[in-house]
Write a structure and sequence with these properties.
It is a single chain. The chain contains 14 helices and 13 strands. The strands form four sheets. The chain has a four-stranded parallel β-sheet with strand order 4-3-9-10, with helices on both faces. Strands 5-6-7-8 form a four-stranded antiparallel β-sheet. Strand 5 and strand 6 form a beta hairpin. Helix 4 crosses helix 6, helix 6 packs across helix 7 and helix 12 runs parallel beside helix 14. Bound molecules: zinc ion (ZN). The site of zinc ion has 3 residues, from loops.
């Protein structure tokens, strides 16, 4: 295997080698299921699905863990707004909608799909250990991590402590109680009218980042190969995860390949509920075949910001139809290795799906106009299968295979 993957930790593409030679461990940050998910989530999860499928095509075993953050400020806010509707019901309803979207897009189900609320005991244990190691402190029922004491804090963002202070920080809660401006909550005391679990410090609930650290260690071990998520999670969430994991295990690096996908915008504007400009997968799928939408999502490189505009799907329809027609020409002969090599060269370069699709498009042209070589259609179909297209026979939920 000659795969190079870009890692935000070193800001360069590095030849991929798993920590354990026989199994690749991947943790991808999941959603907080307090509301409907949109095309931006599909962009992220389809690309990580292709990463997984590409590793599998290289004869590797992959353990893919993706969590659900089912306790957090937003979940509590929605529950209150809905007159105390149980958080587990809100979670299950929104998760079912997301799952249905991703199933239709033929995204393989995660190997493990942990819920934060199923890991409270381990989170309390991890928080106790960090207190024992004196890299955390308690203030009136809240437990904080001393960010300044972790000397690599900021490395992932290529930032100094001072420049981090200028960044927007959604985890900077309880300012008055914190000793350092970048310290973050491991455990927070719950008000009487909000959910909480008993702990040595207070009846409370976990901070956001410790949840991912604990779920990652619980299901994948102290060191993992690939950690994925949107680039909006680079700070502070992923910076915190490194600080917590390496402080707990004493092993470094916690993870070598930090893969961050770009953000999806609508007509140049960030998609957000507050702006009312969400594009929902299930709306698009009313008029668009799921493989067609998958093709659209893969036509942008995962690290680039994608800009969805009405009409984009029409623009890519001809390519989609061309692939389907070309695949009908397979005769089950030996596949043409030169096409496979062109495809793999593009994918080996940090999963360059736009270039891979361009090469496959040229191949499909030759197949359709009859200038192809023997075995070219077979090679094309195999490549499209690796990219997860159900029409090319890629296994997955779209073909009723719900196994991970
Ligand atoms: Zn996370």
């Amino acid at each position: 295997m000659n795969l190079k993957l870009y890692t935000s930790l070193h800001n360069e593409k590095i030849t991929f080698e798993p920590v354990r030679s026989n199994e690749v461990s991947i943790y991808v940050c999941g959603v907080t299921p307090y509301d409907v998910t949109h095309l931006g989530h599909a962009f992220s999860y389809v690309h990580f699905d292709v990463l997984r499928r590409y590793l599998l095509s290289n004869k590797l075993t992959v353990k893919y863990v993706q969590n659900l953050t089912d306790i957090d400020d937003d979940m509590i806010m929605v529950s209150k707004r809905l007159n105390g509707k149980p958080i587990s019901e809100i979670r299950d309803e929104n998760d079912a909608l997301l799952r249905n979207d991703l199933d239709q897009l033929n995204v393989l189900r995660p190997t493990v799909y942990p819920y934060a609320t199923d890991h409270i005991k381990e989170i309390i244990t991890a928080t106790s250990e960090l207190l024992q190691k004196n890299i955390a402190y308690v203030v009136d029922g809240d437990v904080f991590f001393k960010a300044e004491q972790f000397n690599k804090y900021g490395n992932l963002n290529n930032a100094t402590y001072e420049t981090l202070l200028e960044k927007e920080n959604p985890e900077a809660k309880q300012r008055a109680k914190r000793r350092g401006p970048l310290d973050f909550l491991l455990w927070q005391k719950s008000p009487a009218d909000e959910p909480g679990w008993d702990s040595p410090w207070s009846r409370g609930r976990p901070g956001w980042s410790i949840e991912c650290t604990v779920m990652s260690i619980s299901h994948l071990g102290e060191q993992i190969d690939i950690h994925g998520g949107g680039k909006d999670l680079l700070f502070p969430h992923h910076e915190n995860e490194i600080a917590q994991a390496e402080s707990l295990s004493g092993e470094a690096p916690f993870c070598n390949w930090w893969m961050h996908n770009g953000m999806l915008q609508l007509d140049g504007v960030k998609m957000s509920k507050s702006l009312g400009n969400l594009v929902l997968v299930r709306d698009l799928l009313k008029t668009t075949e799921p493989d067609h939408l998958r093709l659209y999502l893969l036509s942008t490189h995962y690290r680039s910001d994608a800009n969805y505009q009405i009409g984009d799907l029409d623009d890519i329809k001809a390519l989609y139809e061309k692939f389907k027609v070309a695949c009908r020409n397979i005769q089950n002969v030996q596949k043409l290795t030169s096409i496979t090599e062109e495809f793999r060269d593009a994918m080996d370069d940090d999963l360059n799906t736009p270039l891979a699709l361009q090469k496959l498009s040229e191949s499909a042209n030759r197949i359709i106009n009859g200038s192809n070589q023997t075995g070219e259609a077979e090679a094309l179909q195999e490549a499209l299968n690796i990219l997860g297209f159900a029409f090319a026979g890629a296994r997955g939920p779209a073909l009723n295979d719900f196994s991970p």
